[in-house]
Specification:
Elements (H helix, E strand, L loop, with lengths): L8 E11 L4 E4 L6 E4 L7 H7 L7 E6 L13 E5 L14 E6 L2 E10 L3 E5 L9 E12 L2 H6 L11
Antiparallel strand pairs: 1-2, 1-3, 1-9, 4-9, 5-8, 6-7, 7-8
Length: about 160
C-alpha cells in the first residue's frame, strides 16, 4: 500500500520556498526534512491543501496567493508604541523583529520606524501580502500515533519534546 499524505498522517518533506522573484526565503536543503502532522493547523492552509494526496517520492510545485498563505496585510496592525514600553537596554533597530507577550500569548512585530519617543510596530506577519512558491518532495508518510493526534503535532524520533 502506497502511503499518501492525508488528514492525520505525519508527513516528512523536503521543501524550498521562494518569493515570486525567485529569492529563497526558506528551505530544508542540507537539513533534516520538515515533519508535520497533516490537518492540524501546523502549516499554512494552502501548503497542506496542495500537498494532500501526494505519495512518497512525489514532487510538487505550487504557488500560494496571500489568502492561502499568511493573509493580506492589515494596515490596522501597524501601531505606534511609546519607546518607554521597551526595556531601556534594548538596542532598537528598524527592521528588527521583536517578540512580545500579549493577552493572546506570544506575538511578534517588526519595527518599521523609530522617532524620538515613538516606535512604529508592524504586527502583520512578515510574509503577509506576499505570493509564495513552494517546491516540495515527499520523503516519508506514516499514520499519526494516538499521542500525536491528542497533542495536535508530530513527535520527532525518540518521543516528544515539549
Amino acid at each position: 500500500m502506497k502511503e499518501t499524505i492525508e488528514q492525520d498522517t505525519v508527513a516528512s518533506v523536503h521543501y524550498t520556498g521562494t518569493f515570486v522573484d525567485g529569492e529563497v526565503f526558506d528551505s530544508s536543503e542540507g537539513r533534516d526534512p520538515l515533519v508535520f502532522l497533516v490537518g492540524h493547523g501546523q502549516m499554512i492552509s494552502g501548503f497542506e491543501q496542495e500537498i494532500l494526496g501526494a505519495s512518497v517520492g512525489e514532487k510538487r510545485e505550487f504557488t500560494l496567493t496571500p489568502d492561502r498563505a499568511y493573509g493580506e496585510r492589515d494596515e490596522d496592525a501597524v501601531q505606534q508604541i511609546e519607546k518607554s514600553q521597551f526595556p531601556e537596554d534594548m538596542d532598537l533597530q528598524v527592521g528588527m523583529v521583536v517578540g512580545a507577550h500579549s493577552d493572546q500569548g506570544p506575538i511578534q512585530f517588526t519595527i518599521k520606524e523609530i522617532n524620538e519617543d515613538i516606535v512604529t510596530a508592524d504586527f502583520n506577519h512578515q510574509m503577509a501580502g506576499m505570493t509564495l512558491r513552494f517546491n516540495v518532495e515527499v520523503i516519508e508518510v506514516r499514520p499519526a500515533s494516538e499521542e500525536e493526534l491528542a497533542h495536535g503535532h508530530a513527535h520527532g524520533p525518540g518521543g516528544h519534546h515539549h
